[in-house]
């Protein structure tokens, strides 16, 4: 598989690929929200601070309909770079991989049928606990229920997420569990200082080492819910955690509450694994014996600056883009070049029809 | 397959069985509500008139957890006969068939993760239109979305429902589409006169033959939503409509908006196909070239009166019991006797632990 780089336990990575490449995939897209994203300059996952809350449902609508209902255009950075959902949609559509949307605490509900959990969004960890212990317990329980159901329907459950501000809560959870994390960001000029200030402030409130308490104090509903999904789903099927730093935080929590390492891999883009400002590969190997599959989406060769930007450190990952591209390539045999061409078609469709 | 009786196009029925028996099944459970059930003496799907609204979510909770959260005990008739969900649960569990709950207009939301549609419950057809045309359009659209997604995850999508009062709205829809329907009931002494009065009153308001208008005037959200599911799912996978009269109404609406007959079958209990007060087999063959598979759950031989009652005309069907039992037998090779013994175990568990 020349399309992928493998990190961590290479034998496990190869076994994972061998066991899923002839099977079925199911993409689950978990949308959520943390008020931490309302801190100025913490995220660019939206055209402006008010529109950030619409990004997760709009990503879900775009994945599904090919356009958004909650907002007029697809989610973009303030200077017009598109959401990584563009890559996810291209991947899923080119390979006919089905998907389901799960609302695990999004502030705004998407205008399509989705799996309802009744979870509420997380609070701003720079000023208070994100969630109560009982909210964490419910998120994990409901995650377990959904993980069990979805894993029973597929050979490989892909889990992606959309939660603006989520790299900051992920950093906090990783630090809370004692891991020396330097997280990626959706912005090339990663606001590391600001993130660390927020995390330090949140860590100062941490009053117990109990894993639920760590996530309640420092995390967000996505981390708790996806950890529940992973813990049950990995007992039944393969699970591809599609994402970067946020999935490392999931892995950290999951390593405390239990999951099946042998059925789990992280799938992400090479933009994450080669990010010099983060330490993703070391971090994951410190947390668990779970391999990383990294794909180069080939976008550095794109003629469209909006796509090329992903290879230059913008967004890098999100909406499970990396894992979806990996699954689509395994299913179709597409190369990075094929994928880039399909993404260009989708880009062209979007930006000439808008 | 000695466990099943086949009706209608026998060759199609046999083909359907042959093509699904080695594949995967997915059970989707659609819960809904029509205010028509509030008419006194129209249904016994609940211990009393106030508790009827809790029956669909409680059925969903029981299927999932093995007990209910919304109410204390599992749904029962006023004299203590259990919900047919007992049969569905026995079938799904014995064969490890996964399930998902879809809320398509239930008055009360179940306390578990479920697929949210945002549909509202149907109004009482004896006094007003059940739904607006745009509500019907949304129900059909959302049904199509979910049908497409779920059918992509399985070889055979089983669709069951729980909607108290639903045989009356089904009768109305069937009559509205010009079919001479005599419907089954969850009560042996079928209140035919009352049902026909309600239907006559509803039919007097019917002001257009447009299929959406017929269902808006006479139907309920379940019929519209499941019809949408059938229309898209049957293009992708096999679909087993698990139910009696309600699924005939779905078939009637679907035959107007389009679906793939060759991938569709009705799966039900022999208590429905042998019900002398209804004309189920003729009715279905009048509507579409869709075969009926009927299973004898073997309950006439049960030592428990509460189970034996199903064979004596109580409940007969519901919560997709018949279709679930058929799928479970295809998957496990169980006979009616095996199934009855499993149902007795579940009955015993429930009524000694309560």
Number of strands of chain A: 8
Q: Which strand order do you get reading across the main beta sheet of chain A? A: 1-8-7-6-5-2-3-4
Our count of domains of chain A comes out at 1
* String of helices and strands of chain A: EHEHHEEHEHHHHEHEHHEHHH
The average pLDDT of chain A is 93
What does the largest sheet of chain A look like?
8 strands, mixed
Count of DSSP helices of chain A?
A: 14
Query: In what range is the share of β-strand residues of chain A?
Result: 5-15%
Which chains have the largest interface?
A: A-B, 24 and 24 residues
- Would you tell me the structural class of the helices and strands of chain A? alpha/beta
Q: How many whole angstroms does the radius of gyration of chain A measure? A: 18 Å
Which ranges of chain A are low-confidence, i.e. pLDDT below 50, for 5 or more consecutive residues?
none
From the 3D structure, determine the CATH topology of chain A: Rossmann fold
What overall form of chain A do the CA principal axes indicate? globular
Question: CATH superfamily of chain A, called what?
Answer: Nicotinate-nucleotide-dimethylbenzimidazole phosphoribosyltransferase (CobT), large domain
For this structure, the quaternary state is: homodimer
Q: Which architecture of chain A per CATH?
A: 3-Layer(aba) Sandwich
The helix fraction of chain A, in percent, is 40-55%
CATH class of chain A: Alpha Beta
């Amino acid at each position: 598989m020349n399309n992928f780089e493998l990190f961590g336990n290479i034998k496990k990575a190869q076994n994972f690929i061998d066991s899923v490449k002839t099977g079925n995939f199911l993409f689950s897209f978990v949308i959520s929200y943390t008020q931490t994203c309302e801190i100025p300059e913490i995220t660019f996952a939206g055209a402006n601070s008010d529109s950030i809350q619409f990004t997760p449902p709009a990503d879900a609508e775009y994945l599904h309909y090919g356009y958004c209902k909650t907002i007029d255009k697809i989610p973009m950075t303030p200077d017009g770079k598109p959401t990584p959902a563009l890559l996810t949609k291209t991947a899923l559509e080119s390979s006919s991989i089905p998907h389901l949307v799960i609302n695990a605490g999004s502030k705004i509900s998407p205008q399509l049928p989705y799996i309802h959990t009744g979870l509420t969004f997380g609070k701003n960890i720079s000023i208070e606990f994100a969630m109560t212990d009982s909210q964490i317990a419910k998120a994990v329980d409901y995650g377990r229920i959904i993980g069990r159901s979805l894993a029973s329907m597929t050979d490989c459950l892909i889990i992606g997420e959309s939660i603006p501000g989520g790299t900051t809560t992920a950093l906090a959870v990783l630090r809370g569990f004692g891991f020396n994390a330097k997280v990626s960001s959706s912005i090339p000029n990663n606001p590391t200082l600001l993130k660390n200030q927020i995390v330090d402030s949140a860590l100062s409130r941490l009053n117990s080492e109990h894993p639920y308490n760590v996530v309640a104090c420092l995390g967000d509903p996505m981390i708790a819910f996806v950890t529940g999904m992973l813990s049950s789903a990995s007992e039944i099927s393969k699970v591809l955690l599609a994402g970067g730093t946020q999935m490392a935080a999931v892995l950290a929590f999951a390593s405390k509450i239990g999951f099946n390492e042998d059925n789990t891999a992280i799938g992400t883009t090479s933009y994450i694994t080669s990010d010099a400002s983060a330490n993703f590969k070391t971090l994951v190997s410190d947390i668990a014996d779970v391999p990383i599959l990294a794909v180069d989406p080939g976008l550095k060769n794109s003629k469209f600056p909006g796509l090329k930007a992903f290879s230059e450190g913008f967004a890098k990952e999100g909406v499970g883009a990396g894992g979806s591209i990996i699954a689509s390539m395994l299913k179709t045999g597409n190369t990075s070049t094929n994928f880039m061409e399909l993404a260009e078609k989708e880009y062209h469709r979007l930006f000439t029809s808008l």
